């Protein structure tokens, strides 16, 4: 899949270069479960290779919808017989997305998906205080966000530079775009900036209905470092994809090539360009006003700091909501207790969000972590923190309110 995905990125870069100079934080809102929208599928004649030992797969053309703008976003090819999972809503008032799920699933449970297209990261240090979320911190969150509709109980590996991708022809082309991006950013802010480019990968393991899975996330960082005397900032674009598969199928899945032939709907592109242009002008005006105030008086400087802190607090909270969920109720009736007993579920009040959730199974001991994952066991000596990532704590099931 690597070469085909890289080609899709290069296409998207060439399309997006007309308005990519805006590098604002991504808007946040979450999805908690798989949402596969039925779409009209038309056959195409292209084929995709799985490996030298397998028969080529026929491809079908599908359309991807933007729910926020109520229009077609793009079209791609998927292998015949695979399931398309799409649940996308762009931010109608700026860059980024309110939610993004775009993945293809084979009948054997292999999943190939894209990270949110042209997603931004933004991080800065002012007066010794760090705000925002940097690329390195977002990759583990993206792993959870994109994979959690399918998997649970994650054990992440270490994020490393993808030397093979960096040395490839596609990597060189993405790096050339990164240099051009840095030049545009320098012209926009009026001072020199440093290119911030890398291509990384991270392996991880998880479970899907108690079946061991392996996963891989690959991402490119196309950004800049701005050494402004008042504020050092790092911002740019994240692009990437992820692969999930049962352990015995992962080696094959990680090498799969699918010629998606991603094609942006021009009407959608024009609409998004107009929205981002408006946001860019607003951000530029705000930036100029903020710099003038910082030089003029300390109080104005403090006011701007408070405003930015609030903005990034909301930014980080929304990322948590993507992973932890945002729906439910703390009430738990006797009738709900009976239903749980009949259906074999256990209900909890999530200690991080205060929302009510249900998990399959009845166990003597339950644990949860900050990623909204739960583990039940009858072994009093089992410690999930010794096996899975996260800070696990004991949690008690809900009791009915009589």
Automatic annotation (TrEMBL):
Keywords: Signal. Residues 1-23 form the signal peptide. This is Uncharacterized protein. It comes from Algoriphagus faecimaris.
């Amino acid at each position: 899949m690597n070469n085909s995905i890289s080609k899709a990125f290069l296409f998207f870069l060439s399309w997006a270069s007309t308005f990519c100079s805006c590098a604002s934080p991504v808007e946040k809102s979450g999805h908690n479960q798989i949402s596969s929208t039925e779409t009209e599928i038309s056959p195409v004649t292209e084929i995709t290779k799985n490996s030298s030992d397998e028969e080529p797969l026929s491809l079908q053309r599908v359309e991807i919808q933007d729910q926020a703008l109520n229009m077609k976003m793009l079209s791609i090819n998927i292998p015949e017989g695979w399931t398309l999972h799409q649940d996308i809503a762009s931010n109608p008032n700026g860059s980024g997305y309110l939610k993004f799920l775009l993945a293809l699933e084979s009948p054997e449970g292999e999943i190939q998906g894209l990270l949110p297209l042209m997603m931004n990261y933004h991080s800065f240090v002012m007066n010794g205080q760090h705000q925002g979320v940097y690329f390195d911190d977002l990759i583990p969150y993206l792993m959870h966000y994109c994979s959690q509709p399918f998997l649970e109980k994650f054990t992440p590996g270490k994020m490393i530079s993808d030397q093979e991708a960096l040395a490839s022809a596609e990597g060189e082309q993405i790096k050339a775009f990164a240099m051009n991006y840095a030049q545009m950013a320098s012209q926009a802010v009026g001072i020199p900036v440093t290119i911030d480019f890398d291509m990384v990968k991270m392996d991880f393991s998880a479970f899907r209905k108690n079946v061991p899975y392996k996963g891989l996330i690959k991402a490119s960082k196309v950004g800049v470092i701005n050494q402004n005397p008042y504020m050092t900032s790092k911002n740019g674009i994240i692009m990437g994809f992820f692969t999930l598969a049962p352990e015995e199928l992962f080696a094959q899945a990680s090498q799969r090539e699918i010629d998606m032939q991603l094609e942006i709907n021009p009407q959608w592109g024009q609409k998004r360009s107009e929205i981002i242009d408006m946001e860019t002008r607003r951000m530029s005006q705000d930036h100029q006003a903020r710099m003038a105030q910082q030089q003029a008086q300390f109080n104005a400087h403090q006011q701007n700091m408070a405003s930015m802190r609030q903005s990034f607090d909301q930014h980080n909270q929304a990322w948590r909501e993507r992973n932890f969920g945002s729906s439910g109720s703390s009430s738990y009736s006797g009738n709900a207790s009976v239903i749980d007993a009949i259906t074999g579920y256990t209900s909890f009040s999530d200690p991080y969000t205060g929302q009510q959730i249900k998990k399959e199974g009845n166990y003597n001991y339950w644990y949860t972590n900050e990623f909204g994952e739960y583990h039940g066991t009858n072994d009093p000596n089992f410690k999930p923190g010794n096996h899975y990532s996260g800070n696990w704590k004991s949690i008690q099931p809900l009791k009915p309110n009589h």
